[in-house]
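Subgroup meeting minutes
Present: P.N., E.W., G.H.
Scribe: E.W.

1. P.N. recapped why we're keeping a running log of single-chain structure predictions: easier to compare across weeks, and new members can see raw inputs and outputs side by side.
2. G.H. added today's entry (183 aa).
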Amino acid sequence: MSTAKNNKPTESELEILGILWEKGAATVRDVHDELSKSKDAGYTTTLKLMQIMHEKGYLNRDASSKTHVYTAAISQENTQQQLLNKMIDTVFNGSASQLVMQALGHHTSSKEELDKIRQYLNDIEDQKKGKLDFYDSTICSPYHSDPGFWMGAFTFPVAGVPHLCLSANSTVSMVAHERQDQI
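Output recorded in log:
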């Protein structure tokens, strides 16, 4: 998926992207049928918007068959992060803590959600204190054909934070892992 630096889709484009991020691949008809569940939109409007999104680089289009199949060309995570950063900068004057306080102050959180937030904050504090774990270079090996290329992999002990893979020639790569028990 593309990692365009300025993913600023409109609200309607985000609705289409949300459907494609969930489904993976879909025709215009599939997307239109899904959109019709929550809003009144014409098929040709959906088609035109998806064509424009393809031109902008937001969507990939497979035109190998009669019915074109679309997939998201931009990642959900990257787009969410860019939109969140913009909102923090413009609405909360650059203060992530104000965003969190606003969200927690006006939303009822379950005990499990609050426990996760506490654990995340504790992990961030550990990260800032510089507590690093060392991992075997085999973590990085799948990302470069020569296992000897990597000196080792380090990570902060925070779930979802990628490993930093350090190579013998000082190349640094980020490697994310799906399994929590590896972090």
